């Protein structure tokens, strides 16, 4: 059985060589419970002709991760194997990585498609030696396997689908993206983040230092108007926020209820449910940051709205599909008066905002 090395050379699969590589990453782990030979045995059983050393490392890391149920140190070992594998595939010098990302050219159009902003690129090139020397790559080995794979899957920048950044590169990109020319503050922020004293929210990790440097996490939006223009203008706003990795909180109690009269067409409204299905599909289509994580739309409704019962059923697993929107998050915007009526076991009235104008501004 042969394996292809990273430089393209073909070499026979060697049990002892795999075991030795895994053993070198077992420092500080419990030798009574972590067995490199056992990982090698399980890894070898999944090897096929023509496998690459990259795939071999992936298989060894996954094997160690599965063995976490026997001892937690296997999770640390799995992360170390995965991190070591990434280090072998990526450049060590951060400024070189930034240069590659900045000078990226779309292979389909031949047009420049920089993934780093002009400001960040110029700052890094100006202070390359100082910033490169500040990075401590051993800190990448402090991640657990699940955490590292999450970074690898969604947070680390890629070139033509291949991960180009290391975790420490991402952290320094964030630090420089935030502080710019203040290199002392950038390095201080890098050290605090890489030593896990704090972290930034996902949009900052996704976008800092890039041309689309939108760093905010959450946006609260009011429906612009109870009209086609208002509904779709608000939908576009939500789509643009989600595109740039923001989460959305939207209130919809200004939208008229099912059966309410529509003066412009002499018809009746379909209510909240069909509209929210459109928002649901937008959240699925326009995911956060370009396929980094699902769109997150939280929909709020005051409990006097006449469609409140249909609203509360939208995430149910059973029922007709045309009255379900399971990818949105839902919440009631509960006023004090509602809770007083609950305490008194009193009567609660449902109303349509079109027939009771101004109600959304009162409670």
TrEMBL record:
One GO CC annotation: ribonucleoside-diphosphate reductase complex
GO terms under biological process: deoxyribonucleotide biosynthetic process
Catalytic activity, reaction form: a 2'-deoxyribonucleoside 5'-diphosphate + [thioredoxin]-disulfide + H2O = a ribonucleoside 5'-diphosphate + [thioredoxin]-dithiol
Keyword Signal: no
Enzyme class: oxidoreductase
Keywords: ATP-binding, Deoxyribonucleotide synthesis, Nucleotide-binding, Oxidoreductase
Domain of life: Eukaryota
Residue stretches making up the ATP-cone domain: 1-92
Residue ranges crossing the lipid bilayer per the database entry: none
Matching InterPro entries: ATP-cone_dom, RNR_lg_C, RNR_lsu_N, RNR_R1-su_N, Rrm1
Cited function: Provides the precursors necessary for DNA synthesis. Catalyzes the biosynthesis of deoxyribonucleotides from the corresponding ribonucleotides.
Protein family (similarity comment): Belongs to the ribonucleoside diphosphate reductase large chain family.
Protein name: Ribonucleoside-diphosphate reductase
């Amino acid at each position: 059985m042969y394996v292809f090395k990273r430089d393209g050379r073909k070499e026979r699969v060697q049990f002892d060589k795999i075991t030795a590589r895994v053993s070198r990453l077992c420092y500080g782990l419990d030798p009574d419970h972590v067995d490199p030979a056992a990982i090698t045995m399980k890894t070898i059983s999944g090897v096929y002709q023509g496998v690459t050393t990259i795939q071999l490392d992936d298989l060894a890391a996954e094997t160690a991760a599965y063995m976490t149920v026997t001892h937690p140190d296997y999770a640390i070992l799995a992360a170390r194997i995965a991190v070591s594998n990434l280090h072998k595939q990526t450049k060590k010098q951060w400024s070189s990585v930034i240069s590659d990302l900045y000078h990226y050219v779309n292979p389909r159009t031949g047009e420049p498609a920089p993934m780093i902003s002009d400001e960040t690129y110029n700052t890094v090139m100006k202070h390359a030696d100082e910033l490169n020397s500040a990075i401590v790559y051993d800190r990448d080995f402090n991640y657990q396997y699940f955490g590292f794979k999450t970074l690898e899957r969604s947070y680390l920048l890629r070139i033509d689908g291949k991960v180009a950044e290391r975790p420490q590169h991402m952290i320094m990109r964030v630090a420089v993206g935030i502080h710019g020319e203040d290199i002392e503050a950038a390095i201080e922020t890098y050290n605090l983040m890489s030593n896990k004293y704090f972290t930034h929210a996902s949009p900052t990790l996704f976008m800092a230092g890039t041309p689309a440097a939108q760093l905010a996490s959450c946006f609260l939006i009011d429906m612009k108007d109870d009209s086609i223009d208002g509904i779709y203008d608000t939908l576009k706003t939500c789509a643009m926020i989600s595109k740039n990795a923001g989460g959305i909180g939207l209130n919809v109690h200004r939208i008229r209820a099912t059966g309410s009269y529509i003066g412009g067409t002499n018809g009746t409204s379909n209510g909240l449910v069909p509209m929210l299905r459109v928002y649901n599909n937008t959240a699925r289509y326009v995911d956060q940051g370009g396929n980094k994580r699902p769109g997150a739309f939280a929909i709020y409704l005051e409990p006097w709205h006449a469609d409140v019962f249909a609203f509360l059923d939208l995430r149910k697993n059973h029922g007709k599909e045309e009255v379900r929107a399971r990818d949105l998050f839902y919440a009631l915007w509960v006023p004090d008066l509602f809770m007083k009526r609950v305490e008194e076991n009193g009567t609660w009235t449902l109303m349509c905002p079109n027939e009771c104008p101004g109600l959304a501004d009162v409670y």
